[in-house]
Amino acid sequence: MLKNKITKVVTSCRSRFYIFDQARELNKHGLLHKLITDYPRSYPERFNVPGEKVEPLLFTGIFNHGFTRLRKYCSQTIIFYVDRFIHNSFSKRLHCYIPKDTEFFIGMSSFSLEALEYCKKRGIKCAVDHASIHQSQERIVLREEAELWGLPHPKTTTPDWVIEKEDKEFATADYIFLPSSSAKASLVKQGIPESKIFINPYGVDVSAFKPAPKTDNVFRVVQVGNVTLGKGVLTLIEAFKIANIPNSELVFIGPGLESFGLKEKIDQMRTNNIKFHPAVPQNELYKHFAQASVSCLASIADGFALVVIQSMACGIPAIVTEHVGSKDLIQHGENGFIVPIRSPESIAKQLQFLAANPEKLKDMSAKALKTISESCSWELYGNRLSNFINSLEKNG
Questions:
Q1: Distance (Å, rounded) from C-alpha 139 to C-alpha 190?
Q2: Among the four given CATH numbers 3.40.50.1220, 3.10.25.10, 3.40.50.720, 3.40.50.2000, the one describing domain 2-203+378-390
Q3: What is the CATH number of domain 219-375?
Q4: DSSP-based three-state secondary structure for 175
């Protein structure tokens, strides 16, 4: 029976996302055959992925990472066409680098259709890894949100060609890897069979995200992520103003205040204790969480949101909406709170409760940290993934 077990797994990604962590964990279990990426070998090596197992698509990487630095100087039309070119240059080349003796292939959604089709023709089992809810559903709720706030429809919604490509990938792959029950529900709603779906919540690097002393007594609410409509930024601003907590501060950390079309609306709503901080490196983020009393993510559509479990790893309880995938790890009233989307009153109520009950806040902080240590390490993610793969038999 052992000869039928899968032992040669290839995973892939354009940019990094969480796939370097996935590759490292597959390697620990003796399953990693190759990581195909658009970074040079030296970069995955920083995440303890062996260089000899990395296949770099450097041509694509030069274009991708180079253009990232030029985006702010380009029009939306140029960005659209260049993004599509870079996207397709990776996707169409990927299958050429899959070793012939591969037994299981993992491709990131929207970047792997041709590779999945290649695997199906050659009898290689394959999965598409999708980090978000179904993007057609995300588009719907974003447009609803824009109408609610009297804003034009967002220009940053996913293009039709990406959604169509992902639907083909979902249909082609043997399995679909998702991080949450929210993501699963959105795909099932689109007619995708539950039998193809494997849910595996992401992990957090507890060496990079850890508790640190808070240096003041300000009741500080922190939300990390792009300053976009989809992240519920306007809802959280309204909630914070409703809460009206003495000696308090709301801090948004992330890019987009000037570029995602919300600045005029935000300027109308913000007060002196609502602040915006640019994105910070991952290895510095824990310092900002350490100065928070509570983290919040008021998103209307979020497949998982690593920032939630990163804040919890720093001993900070989280308030998330029911549309945030990492709600699967929140026990309401124990290590955080789950609130309805578009409900500033609900968020305000929980903020007022935590501000008025410091002992309860301290208890919830300890429970948030305990949740991460017991459920959210990358090691546990790797164990679940390897157990899933070990339960399969290779074709032929």
A1: 13
A2: 3.40.50.2000
A3: 3.40.50.2000
A4: strand
Q: pTM of whole model > 0.85? A: yes
Q: What residue type is assigned to position 196 of the chain?
A: K
11-46 pLDDT, tens per residue? 999 888 899 999 999 999 999 999 999 999 999 999
How far, rounded to the nearest angstrom, does the alpha carbon of residue 125 sit from its chain's CA centroid? 25
Instruction: Give the three-state DSSP class for 214.
Output: coil
Asked if 10 and 105 touch (Cβ cutoff 8 Å), the reply is yes
| Mean pLDDT for the stretch of residues 309-318 | 96
* Model confidence band, residue 144 (pLDDT cutoffs 50, 70, 90): very high
Residues in the chain: 396
d(CA 73, CA 50): 37
Token representation of residue 49: 């992925």
Average pLDDT over residues 222-239: 96
Asked whether the beta carbons of 364 and 336 are under 8 A apart, the reply is: yes
Q: Domain limits of the chain?
A: 2-203+378-390, 219-375
Which residue, 326, 330, 331, is CA-closest to 304? 326
111 vs 107: CA distance, rounded Å: 7
